[in-house]
Amino acid sequence: MSAEATSPGAPIRRRGLPRIDLRRLGRAALFGPVSRDRLSDAIAHVAEAHRAHHPDADLAVLHRAYLLAETSHRGQMRKSGEPYITHPLAVTLILAELGAETTTLTASLLHDTVEDTEVTLDQVREQFGEEVCYLVDGVTKLEKVDYGAAAEPETFRKMLVATGDDVRVMSIKLADRLHNMRTLGVMRPEKQARIAKVTRDVLIPLAERLGVQALKTELEDLVFAILHPEEYARASALTEAAAEGPDPLGAMAVNVAAVLREADISSEVLVRPRHLVSVHRVRMKRGELRGSDFGRVLVLVGEDADCYAVLGELHTCFTPVISEFKDFIAAPKFNLYQSLHTAVVGPDGEVAEVLIRTHRMHKVAEAGVVALGNPYVPDATPQTAEPADGERADPTRPGWLSRLLQWQQSAPDPDTFWTTLRADLAQDREITVFRTDGGMLGLPAGASCVDAAYAQHGDAAHACIGARVNGRLATLGTVLKDGDTVQPLLAEDAASGPSPDWLDHARTPAARIAITGWLDAHPQTAETGQPGVPARRDPQPAAPESAPPAAPEPARTRTATAVAERPDTAVRLAGCCTPVPPDEVTGFPVRGGAAVTVHRLECPAVARMEAVGRAPVAVSWGDEQACRVTLVAESFGRPRLLADLTEAIAGADAAVVSATVEPPSEQRVRHTYTLRLPDAAGLPALMRAMREVPGVYDVSRV
Questions:
Q1: In this structure, what DSSP letter does residue 78 have?
Q2: Which H or E run includes 357?
Q3: Lowest model confidence (mean pLDDT) among 241-250, 377-386, 616-625
Q4: What is the pTM of this model?
């Protein structure tokens, strides 16, 4: 059985964690209203939650799925001592509460049967049909026996590819992870931390992009409690203290309701508390918290036009904070989220944030793609989901997912895929730019003309020489803004290629992978810095007649620590994978065989060059131990972080060749260091020292 599925134990009991209805109902579903030996009654709770959203749903298929799941899991126990069937029941109830349709619930009841029991996919297909079989297969993990350390990244790759055809696969995975996160209490602390980090870096961003806020917010709080217990305790204490004091938001909600009643606008006015991670972010941003910072006022209305009517009344009767106004109805977020955001000053001087949306917008804001039902039935696609150029018109293929599926095909190496996936998901904002032919491109915020060129033209963008942005000539490094019109300009000479400098401007994985691949195949470009230009050899002055012949430079046969089994051959270490002893390496001749470029065996460039028939050259490590390596440190932002990291590097006698620090995103900072070490054997100790710097949660080689 998978460790994640069988390890969860008793629920984590931490002060201040909001116990939302999903959790209360989940516990009820585990045991039902009768004794524990009659768990079959628990399906009634799922049916009740399902009928609340789908009154005409056929419950017979759910009952059959439950019987198969309960029978196949019978005798299996969770580490907490509960029968294993409690897990698929809880996952199914989470999805039922969010409004998932019957097919999704059927698959969620069966989601562990193929992985953990003798049930086969053929049996699932025969009894429940092709759709349910596809969903179950999509969330079934790959075996570590077959894939080793690559099992986790390759499992996520498999799930994402399946999600590209049916978004319900990821809905089941998110609910599955939520229930497992709720019940991590019996695991070892280090295993809790590992699962929490993957949840933070991959699943929470996916929940955000799919718009499933109800799952995302609880996952965030659970991860926050495990990885940052001190900050979690502080946010919890502040929330509890605020609950015992005055209630400015409640008073503001009463005033807002009165104003809307007087304006004859039918509405529902609620106070929406912030979850603990949100409280922590507000505290980091504003310092001391006000009473109104612990939640927001939520106004629900019937029609889109009513949202703007409410906005007009609020801005008329209260003092608006204009800088806080955002219209996500006219311009929805890329995860389908729609709402009006504003802030107003109440009679007592308190500033309250207000969210205004219709009931349907609220359902989509909470449940995201889960609320959209089956994308393959007529009229299932919401009017807000406009198809991008050449893409499907259903929610299973939003623009960001299309881009992800495209670049993952070019990242066959599991480590490259895993690192790139986490970096891609960390980009949490998206812009839309227009092509001159009328099409549109969805790109992450901060994307440049380089990214637009590769998004539009693929590998043909290697020949790009510039661009026009809004009709004016622009450099390839020009950062695009939402609504810009961009026209990449391609050279007629298809043999030209990108410069290494392009990597400084590329934000999308597709562009970075394509550029890196081209540079690996054309190392002379990487050496000269000029696209399509071979390395230049400066003329040497003639030696005086009386001078003895110059001895050959050792660097011509050995650079750094690598030695090629070819006499009189220059050797260079590839910048794409920065090999160091004792990495297993191979080499490929360049410049007509006059030089050899050394790559790590697992470098994607090796597979590409072998695929085109490039013959490898045997390479070994020489006596020299000095090496050059590029490390990426990911951390939470704090004062003196850069100084502490630099001190850790200096303590390992490493010299900093170059360093870059990306702008913080959600209090997270990414540092990239190219270092020269006097001895490659000291690399593991250096990485450990960097990981021990407070705030740093991961250090990896590029």
A1: -
A2: strand 351-358
A3: 377-386
A4: 0.64
